[in-house]
């Protein structure tokens, strides 16, 4: 039989110090007898709950229950208290004024020398502020801060969820890839601040057209994505595209400026053009560039023969050859961050092409075309020259040893003088091979394994670092990769972006990292876009992170600012 403790005993403190601690602590404290009748509370309890001691003396603590937790929650709580003597966790309680709030609560039983429970002791803290901050941070990671729209990662996740629901029901959806025409020129003319105001107004105008179940996001820069959910016919998508184009053709009045813009829209259809977000976005992107090529300020649907358009291909080849001669390309750099010490350990060089006749040509279009036509050889040499020039500029600004990754196509290894030509360019600009990382795809190294191995050994002996890019998308194994003189292995972004949602992708990435480390290779995860992905990759002991979570690809001039800002953030521990 449990001995009932008399409530009056709790008014007697062993000494004045204990009384002062009890009443001055910021955590709320409540003590009950063995029958769960409240005997004593402190000042913090009264402040947080609004109840005084007179209000609650002799009553059961269930008067604080909010109703947000069911009976199973409390059954589990009391089971832990009775078996372990203590329970700790988050709970939602209710103040005297009816306001529901979250608290971190610990409950423990107090026993006498005979092991009998005499009292229960609860101590809690109000975590409303903590929950508010967590919600704010979550919103920051899910939304675009300029327009308050969903960001690219949120959009992809939402679209894939919609697709998973739609596949068994034969629903039809349309994806619109919206790009503002010549927006870079507008930014240069009126300034970035006005440009941001235009982007915000563009988002607001399109919102008026969006239906309740549609998914609308800012993809990046001046690009927007819109999923039209549950349509019955492609004509509906065309009508929406026309409405958006018409809306954006109206003048923008900002800071005394009357500004006119146009837009180009590419449209892909689920399920005929793809059954995952990546494919639908990719095909809508292609259709958007087709709309630009045909005069801008219009929309175009994706169709399978789009890439075979003879007029487009003829123009593409002619302009690509001219641009290689005039070196009409820009290089952007995406930082690579060590997950261990948060240092910027290098950057990847990514080529960008804006042509007078073709506009902004996507690398996914002109790089494969350059490989097919053999133009990849002179194009790569132009890229390497521009990277060397940037390295020289960085040196003059005090950045001495930043490693740069450049992509090498399989066609290079078929050239007898390939290594000599690369070395000649580096010597011309006084650059060291040790500052370069050469990236090859799985498919490249598997085409002529032994011949490529010999060239890679020679390159590595010269000081180049060697990396396998897009690992997991080909057909090679880690045991086979071990034959090559590698330094790094890059996990393809298609795996990385799904590790927090698909257990099989998570298991694959985890296995690749473990096996790569056994082969003494460092692992780079590319396409990282969320904080959860970073945390999970850190738990898997991944070495290096690359992706939009830390930085988009940026011009050389912005890279120096990024490095300076990163050092400040790192010292303030504001980076993960």
Distance between the termini: 55 Å
Uncertain stretches of 5 or more adjacent residues: 1-13
Radius of gyration: 31 Å
In total, the number of domains comes to: 3
User: Could you tell me the strand content as a percent range?
Assistant: 15-25%
General shape:
globular
Secondary structure category: alpha/beta
Mean pLDDT: 85
Q: If strands are numbered along the chain, what order do they take across the biggest sheet?
A: 13-14-16-17-18-19-20-21
CATH class category label of the largest domain: Alpha Beta
What is the fold named in CATH at topology level of the largest domain?
TIM Barrel
Count of individual helical segments:
21
State the share of residues found in helices, binned by percent: 40-55%
CATH superfamily of the largest domain: EAL domain
Largest sheet: 8 strands, mixed, barrel
Strands, total number: 22
CATH architecture of the largest domain: Alpha-Beta Barrel
Domain PAC: 87-139
Domain PAS: 14-60
Domain GGDEF: 171-304
Domain EAL: 313-567
